[in-house]
Design goal:
This protein is an all-alpha fold. About 75% of the residues lie in helices and about 0% in strands. The protein has five helices and no strands.
Length: about 150
């Protein structure tokens, strides 16, 4: 069986794909890293979409002219966060986890460089990258015993 961090890859069924390996009960904890990363990524994208909408309404009420191109760019970026979160939940792959991690880090860097804060999106990056790293380690060990 699996201990807290070490997984006995010899006890796992032979011939599994990486996605099938992740579904094994022994990898439940690693699987949950992907679940939470996807959920946080989705929520971050949705919260940011709401925030950009509020800011647009406030600017309009104040008499400022909105730059629709900039608003569309940010809306697209936040939609991208939602889509990548959903894809991570569906695909459960290390590649998608890295996409989530890198995009969350990029948004955090942009926010900080423009006077904002890191926000909760960075949690998605940490969860996704940690889960991907752990899965890759188990996958390499599993392939070595096949």
């Amino acid at each position: 069986m699996a201990s807290k961090e070490n997984i006995d890859v010899n006890s796992l069924p032979k011939g599994l794909t990486q996605k099938e390996l992740l579904k094994q009960p022994e990898l439940k904890k690693i699987n949950s890293w992907f679940t939470w990363a996807g959920v946080v990524q989705i929520l971050t994208g949705l919260m940011n979409m709401g925030m950009i909408g509020q800011q647009a309404a406030q600017l309009e009420q104040s008499g400022y002219k909105l730059n629709s191109g900039v608003m569309a760019l940010f809306s697209g970026l936040f939609l991208f966060l939602v889509v990548t979160g959903i894809l991570l939940l569906v695909m459960r792959s290390t590649a998608m986890a890295y996409v989530v991690g890198i995009s969350a880090i990029a948004v955090a860097i942009y926010a900080v460089s423009h006077g904002g804060t890191v926000g909760v999106g960075i949690v998605a990056a940490v969860l996704a990258i940690a889960g991907a790293t752990k899965l890759q380690k188990v996958w390499r060990e599993y392939q070595a015993v096949q």
